[in-house]
Amino acid sequence: MSPGLAYAVVRCHSMRADLIPPNTFKSVVEAVDFGKMIEILSETSYKDELSNFQLRAAGVERALNLSFVKRLEHIIGVSPKEISNFLSVYYFMGLEIQNLKRIVKGKYAGIPTNQIMDSLIPLRPYLSVRFESLLEAENLDELADNLAATIYAPVKTAVELCREYDVLWPIDSWLNGIYVHQVLEPISRLRPDDRVTVKEILQTQIDVENLLAADNWRRESGGQVPPKDLFPHSYRISWDILVRLIEGADSGKVLQGLDPPYDDIMLPLLAEEDRALVRRNLRAYVYAVAERSRRRNDFGFPCIFSLLASFEVEKDDLVSIAWGKERGVQLEKIIKYAVLPSYSNKE
Amino acid sequence: MSVLSGVRPTKGFLLEMQKRLSFIEKGCEFLKLKRDHLAKELSVSLDVLRGRRDKINEQLKKAYDQIVTAHLVLGPSEVRSESRSIKKTYEIDLLPKSVMGVRYPSIKITSRSKIEGKLDPTLSVTANLMQEIFEDILRLAEFEARAERVADELGKTNRKVNALENVVLPSYKQVIKLIQDKLDEESLEELVRTKLIGGAIARRKE
Description:
Oligomer: heterodimer
Order of helices and strands of chain A: HHHHHHHHHHHHHHHHHHH
Mean pLDDT of chain A: 86
Mean pLDDT of chain B: 89
Strand content of chain B: 5-15%
Helix content of chain B: over 70%
Shape of chain A: globular
Distance between the termini of chain B: 57 Å
Structural class of chain B: mainly alpha
Number of strands of chain B: 2
Radius of gyration of chain A: 20 Å
Shape of chain B: rod-shaped
């Protein structure tokens, strides 16, 4: 273990105290209303960020995103180079791509620039992408041209496909592909077992996105098989499986016949056509894999990775809970779609 | 103006009044037919409206549930960003239509938003459902406007039929009877007068 890694691990162990304790989390989930929830959250490590934003669910989301980015920057700052390189790509590029997707959608629909700007995650550009110049683009083609000199250049092809088939999701698909391609590069410098963990997570994420997109395409196109270009990357879920799912005759059988972990993740789609629960299962899966790897080795990369996975899941859960509380959503429903409360229940 | 004003107890006027009475009776019959048809139409419309409202309420509950779910899983800003990727291309035309002479606005959707392939799978089904609901609400609005106007017309027709049956027709009948009585009286007076004159002439000859 290098001294750099040892320091990062110690820092991560101490930063675990920033995670909301299970009892406090339970109080947050069970808070009678949004105001009470904020009151409880204001006594946690999110206190500073929450004080800077309007106390509405959207404000909470921005505050939590900001807090996550700060924590991420801090961990990256103390991690050894090979791990910090990976974390930067894995998290910052992930967030950047999320912003890019929002810009693409806004530009496609002709939404005013200030509205697109408001929906972006507060983040400095990770790569050579200037959000400002992208926001100035008149249309999707100009936006793709602005990305030509960056690693996102293949978006141009995706834009052409989108125009040809009058759909928008291939851009998401291509951006996901670019993301995986970029993350795989720094992964090669991680230890073999850590590499396996991260690859497993990434590939599962892409495969599940492909399965959801294929199911959606089946529903919307009536079983017409699209060109393979619309699904540029697939891993353990092959193109043949996707085609069988799209053709629809035995889509139930296809979903039933998936290997673990896909069978469990996709189960809600088969049982109750609940796509949202599929996404929740995917988040829970990422969290579970990160935690499992930490249990195997709590003094190396898995310790850092699982801490960030926990921060991310906690942030996403708190955003949903805040929105749910603001809108008076039933507690059972909030719990059903959150990752951490259901995990603590299982435990 | 009352029917009784300007009554002239003449044979010609009686024939004119009888002609008018027959015309009004026919009109009243037609109005009764229209009233029955409108009542039937309204009764059917109300049943359909009730059914459609229940269906829309059910669908809205389902859609709201799905929207809540999407917000819980994707987060509010992602849902907002996704929903913005739909171009606003809904266009409708309002055309006048008529049932039993009752005009109502008919809604024709000339272009709808294309949502296929534009949204995250979590939101796509919900968006389709919302689009269905939106179109159902438009159809419901059209149907409600139609039912409202049919009900309005039914009320008017009913009032017209009642006015004809209870006021106009009895007064016409009363006038006709009055004229007939007057004419009968005049004809009897004429007969008596003729007989008296005939008797006087006969007495003078004697």
